[in-house]
Amino acid sequence: MLDQMGKFEEEVRQMKEVAHEAQAMDLVYNFKKRVHELEAEVANRRLTESRIFDSLASQTREFELTKIELEESKVEISLLHEEIESLVASSEQNNWRCDGSCSGKIALEKELGCLRFELGLAKANLAMIQERERFASSKAKALHDEMHLVRNELKFATCAEEKSQKALDDLALALKEIAAEAYDAKEKLSASQLELEQVKDEAGQLKHMVRNAEARYQKLLNEAKKETELHRETADRLRLELDESRLAENETRYITCIKKAEEEKKLAQDEAATLAESLKAAERITRAAKREVYKLKQAINEVDAANTAAGLARDENIQLKDSKAKKEESIRLLTQENERLGINEVAAQENVKKLKRLLSLSALKTEDKEQEEEHNEDPHIKKTSSSVNLQQEQEHLEAKIQDENLEKAKTLKDTIFEINESPKSELHIPKQVSHHRRASSFAFSDDRGTLKTKDLSMSLSKSSSSLNTKDKEQEEERYEELQVTKKLKLQQEQEDLKVKIQDNDPEKAETLRRSIIESPKPEADPHTPTKVPHHRISSSSSSSDDGGSLKTEDSVGDRSHIRRKRTLFRKVGDLIRRKIFHKTIH
Question: Which superkingdom does the taxonomy of this entry point to (predicted)?
Answer without folding.
Answer: Eukaryota
